[in-house]
Amino acid sequence: MGGDGVASEDASHNHQVLKVLGALKEASHQLQRTSSTTDSSNSSIKALLDLEFLSKSILSSDRQLSGLSSHLSDLKNLIQTQEISKPRTGLRSFLANRVRAQEISRVANSIESEIQAWIDRENVANLTKTLEEWSDEESLLTQLSQLRNRLALGFDIDLQNTLLKSRLISELESLLCRTDVSKRVREMVAYSLKEVVLFNKDVFIGEIRVGQIIKALVSIGSFCALEVLKSLIKAIKSPLVDELESCGGINKIINALDSADMATKIMAVDCLMEVGYYGRKEAIEAMLNGGLIKKLVYLQRSELSDLEQGKSDEFVGVEKNRRRRKISVLEGNPFASCVARFAVQLEIGEGLRQREKRAFKQEILKRIREASISDAEAATIIAEVLWGSSP
């Protein structure tokens, strides 16, 4: 009972601190935009001075906010110095005023940075705790969304250090790999991990267990999971494709081409195109041996066949409208020339040597002939591969 009371008091104190810091941050931000006016008539300065007095007792109880208290005192001294200075005219006075204005803006920026660092520490700590013992799915998803939005604002060294010192990344990984958790939660966790990696890939790639994450993503196999995997392949390149091949993930992505969900099929194709671009010899062999060309030929054929035969309800109506609609859908066909697109990815990609590219191109042509249902179909697709297609 006593423990619950202490926790409640801590939460109330943090809420009070957060409220004051939010007001301070907003006033600091506004001051940086209006720093040409540096006397107490400036509404942003007045708000900061009022909050400086109000926040003394609140900030003094948190050692992590000692720097903020110092910045607020510096700001107060700068403004007081500005006000007691005798107004003068001339170039020297103008330059002195500009210097003081810039110094006030600099201190205001430091105040805003200190506040954001404190908020980030609190949010990371709270999310880490939620991940450890969550029970409310909506609350967890809200906090994950807040993390992604914060990371999307761009690089921040304080936030990076906070993430590195926390257990957040390991907790995200653990939740992603749990099969007893809903797919919705695992997908949102996957998006969050992706944003952490992209925040500074040179640092955070070394902080994640790439193999475990890949296994989790391919086991989910949804549009969202494949989208995250595609982003990670583009970020980490050949080393991630190597991990993907070694854990059997390539075959699972190929199997996603059979999904009943069109968006998932399209994302699986996009993912495989990235694998083709960055994959080394072993990865490309795994793709071909996994039946990729046969499946791509089928997708290319089935989409075009449906359009040509007018099987879709989209093509019901007078002949003129039918042709117009057919052209429209053909232009947006996600699997158009997908075999040739894959061949081009290998040709222009980074993972293969030149002689390997030539050998794989011949292998692709052979498999096209085996997968085609007619000489005409084989000739059409082979022509696209030989003459090239935009990836």
Automatic annotation (TrEMBL):
InterPro entries found in the cross-reference section: ARM-like, ARM-type_fold
Coiled coil: none
Protein name listed in UniProt: OLC1v1038055C1
